């Protein structure tokens, strides 16, 4: 084992590290049993890093004298990951300190990772929370993709999907020779004489009556560029209901309609807002098909003056993270995803390529990439109406069509929120001879022109 030598600046970063959801510091005297709890919690959440050999009070470097002194900890970690996948470790050394610090990097695991006490832990903030009761374990299984709420059966009459208009259209157009009841049972959409969640979402005329607060879409229009506040809400939220196929179609259509009413400042002046319909379609489709139906909440689409946010209930499943979501594939609701693809003109025509298509569509329109993040118990995807062009380019393009520009207009076309930041950009452009100043009452209402005045 060859240790990695690190700079004093890197040592300072470690010593000043804030313990939280993705990082932890431990003494070299920690027991193997306790370190497995921390590693279990990271593996069951989103992964993280542990630096072993850092004392807490006071915070200082006190590493292992030899590699062998850490053998007990390493053996305990290898017991958690017998195939060697899921974690990696490195010894760090510094010229300024004695001893080696053991850095352990843990990845989000495919399966539930239990500590040496046979309990599963989950990282929340800086805590390692034991998942011992049945509801917690079931929720963890669903987050890992080991179980899906879509397979749960509902205590209602199966006729809600056998005799529905949705099933009637589907059978007539897709499987004309099939008996509806027999086909639904074959697809495991009716079990023990009851319809499953997947069956209801796909074939019930009104799933929201059977799955209230976890099967609809709400659309909000905020007349602001800032965070959502009820005072900026243009009108009451719009509720979209229906089977999954209709839900996607109507949610996309209404979102596009709402966006078309927005006027935004661009380098060409005030124009109608435009987002690629393909991007909106794919992101809304993903939010509905891949949401966690065990979470009692609807999908929320929030439309602002400068962005669209799509919030889908539930964490990313299994090993999927915001960083690898474009490369990795995993379907939480495999039955819903598979069967909706059998509908005429399915919303998920290119299965597994949805988000990639959204990114490509935004790039084609010269807009910045969508932003994907986990927020609380939700996944939020943000589409920004923000050009890939530099602020200077956008300002010069604006001045080709307009005689003057002021700080506020420049911020609107560049999506830069700070008045002072924009003031510095405009000042640099003046110094570079790109624009001229027309004096105003303050630095913020000063006019700038690309023409000599």
Features:
alpha+beta; Heat Shock Protein 90; flat; 19% strand; 453 residues; Methyltransferase, Cobalt-precorrin-4 Transmethylase, Domain 2
Protein model, in words:
Helix content is 34%, strand content 19%. The protein is of the alpha+beta class and 453 residues long. Strands 13-12-16-17-19-18 form a 6-stranded mixed sheet, covered by helices on one side. A 5-stranded mixed sheet has the order 1-6-7-3-2. A two-stranded antiparallel ribbon has the order 4-5. A hairpin with a 2-residue loop joins β8 and β9 (127-130). The radius of gyration is 27 Å and the shape is flat. The model has no long low-confidence stretch (mean pLDDT 89).
Describe the SSE topology.
Elements: E1 4-5, H1 8-15, E2 23-26, H2 32-44, E3 48-52, E4 54-56, E5 59-61, H3 71-80, E6 87-93, E7 101-106, E8 121-124, E9 127-130, H4 134-144, H5 159-162, H6 165-173, H7 180-186, E10 190-191, E11 194-195, H8 197-203, H9 207-210, E12 217-221, E13 238-240, H10 244-259, E14 263-266, E15 269-272, H11 277-289, E16 299-303, E17 307-313, H12 334-340, H13 354-364, E18 371-375, E19 378-384, H14 391-401, H15 407-414, H16 419-431, E20 436-438, E21 447-449
Helix pairs in contact: 2-3, 8-12, 10-11, 11-13, 15-16
Domain Schlafen AlbA-2: 19-129
InterPro entries: RecG_C_sf (IPR038475), Schlafen_AlbA_2_dom (IPR007421), Schlafen_AlbA_2_dom_sf (IPR038461)
GO molecular function: helicase activity
């Amino acid at each position: 084992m060859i240790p990695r030598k690190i700079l004093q600046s890197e040592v300072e970063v470690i010593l000043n590290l804030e313990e939280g959801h993705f990082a932890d510091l431990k003494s070299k005297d920690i027991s193997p049993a306790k370190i497995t709890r921390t590693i279990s919690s990271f593996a069951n959440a989103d992964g993280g890093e542990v630096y072993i050999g850092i004392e807490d009070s006071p915070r200082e470097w006190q590493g292992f004298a030899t590699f062998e002194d850490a053998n007990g900890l390493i053996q305990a970690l290898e017991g958690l990951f017998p195939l060697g996948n899921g974690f990696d470790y490195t010894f760090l050394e510094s010229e300024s300190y004695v001893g080696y610090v053991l850095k352990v990097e843990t990845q989000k695991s495919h399966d539930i990772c239990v500590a040496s006490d046979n309990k599963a832990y989950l990282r929340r903030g800086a805590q390692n929370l034991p998942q011992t009761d049945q509801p917690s374990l079931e929720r963890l299984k669903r987050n890992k993709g080991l179980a899906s709420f879509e397979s749960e059966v509902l205590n209602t009459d199966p006729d809600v999907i056998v005799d529905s208009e949705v099933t009637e259209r589907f059978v007539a157009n897709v499987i004309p020779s099939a008996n509806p009841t027999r086909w639904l049972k074959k697809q495991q959409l009716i079990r023990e004489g009851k319809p499953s969640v997947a069956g209801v979402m796909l074939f019930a005329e009104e799933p929201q009556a059977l799955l209230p607060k976890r099967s609809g879409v709400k659309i909000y229009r905020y007349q602001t560029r800032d965070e959502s506040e009820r005072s900026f809400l243009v009108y009451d939220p719009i509720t979209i209901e229906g089977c999954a196929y209709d839900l996607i179609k109507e949610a996309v259509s209404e979102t596009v309609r709402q966006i078309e009413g927005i006027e935004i400042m661009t380098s060409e002046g005030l124009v109608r807002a435009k987002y690629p319909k393909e991007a909106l379609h794919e992101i809304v489709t993903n939010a509905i098909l891949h949401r966690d139906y065990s979470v009692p909440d609807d999908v929320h689409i929030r439309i602002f003056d400068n962005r669209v946010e799509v919030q889908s209930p539930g964490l990313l499943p299994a090993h999927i993270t915001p960083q690898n979501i474009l490369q990795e594939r995993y379907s939480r609701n495999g039955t819903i995803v598979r069967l909706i693809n059998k509908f005429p003109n399915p919303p998920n025509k290119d299965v597994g390529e949805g988000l990639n298509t959204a990114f490509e569509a935004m790039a084609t329109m010269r807009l910045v990439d969508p932003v994907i993040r986990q927020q609380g118990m939700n996944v939020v995807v943000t589409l920004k109406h923000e050009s890939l062009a530099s602020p200077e380019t956008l300002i010069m393009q604006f001045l080709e069509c307009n005689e003057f520009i002021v700080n506020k207009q420049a911020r609107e076309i560049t999506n830069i929120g700070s008045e002072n930041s924009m003031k510095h950009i405009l000042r640099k452009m003046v110094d570079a001879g790109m624009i001229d100043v027309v004096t105003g009452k303050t630095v913020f209402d000063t006019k700038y022109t690309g023409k000599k005045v």
